[in-house]
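One record is kept unedited as follows:
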Amino acid sequence: MSLTPDQQAEIETLRSTSVPTLRAVSEGMEAHLYKAYPVLDHGFVRVIDYMGDDAAICQAARVSYGKGTKSVQNDEGLIRYLMRHWHSTPFEMCEIKLHVKLPVFVARQWIRHRTANVNEYSARYSILDREFYIPQPEQLAAQSVINNQGRGEPLSAEASARVLEILKGDAARCYDHYEEMIGKEGEPDNLARELARMNLPANIYTQWYWKVDLHNLLHFLRLRADAHAQYEIRVYADEICKVVADWVPAAYSAFEDYRMGGATLSSKALDVVKRMLKGEDVTQESSGMSKGEWREFRTLLD
C-alpha cells in the first residue's frame, strides 16, 4: 500500500483528534474512520465520513410507512422485512464517503455505478505517480471458453513470466515517455499534462473520493463482491464489505441473507422447482428454458 507522507500525516492527525457530536454515531464505523486498508499492490480503501446507522434506517421506515410497521417487533426484524421486500428508500438514509486508490481499468469498471458522487485525482493538473498494478502470477489466466468476460484456466509458469515481463516493461516505458513529454516546468516545448496522460497505460493508479448511499452501495457490493466479478474489483468490494458489516450490522446481515446468499428465480425456474418437489424428473428440454438458463438454474441448485 502506498500512502504519501502527507496522507499518512493527515490520517494520524484525524485519528488523534475527536470532537463532541449530537449526531448518531456507529461505534463499529468509528473504529474504521480514516484508516487505510491495503488492496492489491499499491491500492487502498479508507473511510472519510459517514452518516446514519441501523437506527436511521428504521427511523426513516417508520416515518414513511407509519402504522404499517407496527407488527414488526424490533429494529432488526424491521430491517430484514425491508430487505426481504426490496424496499430501498430507508437504506438511502445512510451514506458513506470513501477515499479509494485503484488502477484506472478498475476505476472505469467501478464508475459504471452511476449512483454515487465522485471526485477523481486530475492528471490535467497533477502528475500521476509511477505506480502500476502488476498481478500476482496466480491471477494470470487464459480467456474463459464459456464466459466472454471472464477468466479460464491459469497460465503456465512460462507464459505467466512472459506476461509479467511485458506488463512491467510496457508500464515503465510508457511512464518514461510520459515524463519525457512533460519535461521540467518552464522548459520550452513541454507537452501539456492533459495531453501527455493519454500515453499512460490502464494499470496506472488513480485516486478518488466516492460518496454513496447505503442502498446503492449494497447494490454495488452484490455485483462486485460476487464470486463471478473480476478479481481486481472484487478485492475492493470485499474490503468494503468488512467496513459495512461493522457500520450497519443488522442491515448487512439481512443483505447477506437475502441478496448475497439468496437467489431470484424466473417464473419458469419457479415452475420447475414446484414440479421437482412433486417428484417429476425435469430436463432442460421439458423445462422451457434455454441451455444457458438451465445451466445457471442447475448451478443454483447444485
Remarks:
- The radius of gyration is 24 Å.
- The mean pLDDT is 91.
- Residues 157-182 form the longest helix (26 residues).
- The beta strands are 36-39, 43-51, 95-103, 117-120, 141-143, 151-154, 205-213.
